[in-house]
Amino acid sequence: MSLKEKATAFLMGRLGKTAHVRQVTALDHRLLQLELQLPEPLAWRSCQHLKCQVSSTALRDYTVAHYNENNRIATLIIDAGHVGQGSEWLRKLNPGDPVMYVGPGGGLHQPTAASKLVCIGDASAIGHILSLYHRRNPEQGFHTLAIDEDPLPAAIMDMPVQFSDGQEKDVINWLDQLQLPSNDTTFYVAGYIPMVVQTRKLLKQLGWKQVKAAGFWE
């Protein structure tokens, strides 16, 4: 057993819990919806993640996009459109399979009391954004812009999604069309770190002050 395998086994032995797969559903060619039956109740907050064991040496953080407290089912929306241990693990899962995890962790970003919440992110951030969507006040306006190379579904778990390839002028035009109140809007930007940095900088240049950023990968 390698040092990495020993470290992973030690962590899971001390803190690990076992969920079971209820269903894996393909939302498109890359986004998969994973429903997990958790062994215990989850005190769910927006942007919390479960650290899942995807191999004997690898752990991956996946945001809880939705949680049903009545039956303890956590729903994860995962971008599996790239080569990696997490994607390979996910595509092999079947109903009833055990999933070892630690958590939840995170949960720093929550819906504010602003009248408008605006989320910008790539495919890897959809679960993060959905967790905000599902925990917002229904009276709040909620807008999502997906910036990615490939279009995403126009709606995911009932959340409308606008697509852009990330050109600055397209982002600005989209924001102009929303006619957002300057002092009553909170932005959330998440996903690929360079995209997050660039988008946050753009929003600041446009005069927006409430911008919450979370970078996931680069």
Question: Can you give me a brief rundown of this structure?
Answer:
The protein has 218 residues and is an alpha/beta fold.
**Proportion of β residues?**
35-45%
Distance between the termini: 30 Å
What are the secondary-structure elements, in order, as H or E?
HEEEEEHEEHEEEEHEHE
**Average pLDDT taken over every residue:** 94
Largest sheet: 6 strands, antiparallel, barrel
Overall spatial form? globular
* Radius of gyration, CA atoms, in whole angstroms: 18 Å
Helix content: 10-25%
Give the topology:
Layout: H1 3-15, E1 17-26, E2 31-37, E3 48-53, E4 59-68, E5 73-79, H2 85-91, E6 98-106, E7 116-121, H3 126-135, E8 141-147, E9 155-156, E10 159-160, E11 162-164, H4 168-178, E12 185-192, H5 193-205, E13 211-217
Structural description of this entry:
The chain is 25% helix and 39% strand. It has helices at 3-15, 85-91, 126-135, 168-178, 193-205, and strands at 17-26, 31-37, 48-53, 59-68, 73-79, 98-106, 116-121, 141-147, 155-156, 159-160, 162-164, 185-192, 211-217. A hairpin with a 5-residue loop joins strand 3 (48-53) and strand 4.
